[in-house]
Amino acid sequence: MEKINIIVFIPSLLERSVGGKREVNVRASTVQGAIAQLLIDYPLLKPHLYEANGALREHVLIFYNSDNIRWLDSLDIPLRHGDTLTVLQAVSGG
Amino acid sequence: MSKVLLAIGTEKGAFFLTSDQKREHWEIMGPQLRGWKVGHVMLDQRSAPKMFACTGSYVYGPTLNVSDDFGKTWRQIENGPAYADDAPGKLTATWCVAAGHADEPETFYAGVADAGIFVSRDGGQHWRELKGLSEHPTRAEWSPGLGGLCCHTILQHPGNKKRLWVAISAVGVFRSDDGGGTWQVKNEGLTIIIEGKTHKNIGSCVHRLVLDQQNPDHLYQQNHRGVFRSRNGGDSWERIENGLATNFGFPMVMDSRDSKTLFIVPQESDEFRFPKDGRLSVCRSTDGGDSWQTLRNGLPDHAYTGVMRQAMAVDSLDDCGVYFGASGGQVYYSRNNGENWQTMPFLLPRINSVSVSILD
Questions:
Q1: Are B22 and B13 in contact (CB under 8 A)?
Q2: Could you list the residue range(s) of the whole structural domain that residue A31 is in?
Q3: How many domains does chain A have?
Q4: Interior angle at CA B76, CA A45 and CA B211, nearest 5
Q5: CB-CB under 8 Å, A47 with B61
Q6: Is B35's CB within 8 Å of A12's CB?
Q7: Does residue A94 form part of some domain?
Q8: At A79, which CATH number?
Q9: Phi, psi (deg, nearest 5) at residue A46
Q10: Per the CB < 8 Å rule, is B74 touching A48?
Q11: pLDDT digits (tens, 9 = 90+) for B178-229
Q12: Is A19 part of the contact surface with chain B (CB cutoff 8 Å)?
């Protein structure tokens, strides 16, 4: 399957984990692959996004385009040019 | 001329205040680690200066960060303390970093929640869990305090490298005499709040533990149920509350040049965690805890605020400087051993920790 470059948007609190950037490029062929590659390229991100048992942290959101990845039945989705991943925090209130 | 550096950990970053030895005028830098909850900040000067910050986030979890330039820039430690997936505890916070022995400048210890201790032998790059503590025989019966099940204090005997103490809320004091391989409960004489079903000697909520570096069999603690000292390395504890109007509080610090001098910040009670009658006070003992005096010249009368356990420090200058930060964000300091107090002209986020260093 063809690998393509996509943009991953990083929240400001995690800038230092990716060398001070708010956007990074990741090369992969599927959504699952993009997330895995993100953590390979930027290992400092991993403890901030995932628990020790591999579960996505409760208040972390990762969006594949406009879809929360928690809504998706599978992340084995072929990537297309222009796709994005966005990391957000799920926090409301004061 | 030497500089005085205050490192202040807050809910929204770290701030650094500097002054000359007169300690009259202060400059502020920050927030560094902007937006992160910053707990303990520790500067080690045994070799090239290295500063650690315990950081955390409700969303993104805990990490350790390190700075080689006194807090100006920071990098996240990639291989920081971490529990295995099948460990009895989960890493929820990094609580403290302690320097190892004077002749082992690459050794550091880290205390975490869920309570445990990690050691680094390479300047903080890699950390190894000391499982003798986190898998202690009493572990299944440990209960947390309001601040979590935290290993918040780590102390090492200045002469005997094998002897270490830790303080865990709300479990108690543990001591190791084999460099951290095995640990013994050291709560005799302390009030047990949440005793274990089978282990009746755990469940004392120690808020802060202090070691007399000049007489290292002497330790002091501010406990949930009072103020105590030990004169036998923690084997037993006795109350030292003569002169205290209340015995509840969190921080305790010692003047490093005169180890009989201690400072605490009392609160009304565990139910009402603010100064009694709103009168913010510091209590000082100059006789190793035999008696206490209340000092409040310059401290406010209507101050319904708290002071966290790590939010107080004493410098090593003549007429020692004493500093503490309140949960309301104010920093109070004395330039004369606590006799008179001033307020820093800065209002910070909720203050979690205060530490002070002298830079030559």
A1: no
A2: 4-89
A3: 1
A4: 135
A5: yes
A6: yes
A7: no
A8: 3.10.20.30
A9: -55, -50
A10: no
A11: 999 999 999 999 999 877 778 989 999 999 999 999 999 999 999 999 999 9
A12: no
pTM of the predicted model as reported, rounded to 2 decimal places: 0.95
- Residues from chain A that touch B61, judged by Cβ atoms under 8 A, are 47-48, 51, 57
Residue A70 within any structural domain of the chain: yes
Identify whether A24 is part of a domain.
yes
> What is the spatial distance between Cα B253 and Cα B271, in angstroms, rounded to a whole number?
23
Encoding tokens for residue B83?
């529990």
For residue A18, what is the DSSP state?
A: G
pLDDT for B225-258, tens place per residue? Answer: 999 999 999 999 999 999 999 999 999 999 999 9
In a domain, A60, yes or no: yes
Q: How far is CA B278 from CA A87, B269, B302, B353, in A?
A: 44, 12, 5, 22
Residues of A in contact with B58 (CB under 8 A): 59, 91
Q: Is the dihedral of CA A31, A33, A35, A37 positive or negative?
A: negative
Report the complex ipTM: 0.90
Q: In what order do the strands lie in the sheet containing B351-359? A: B27-32, B13-20, B3-10, B351-359
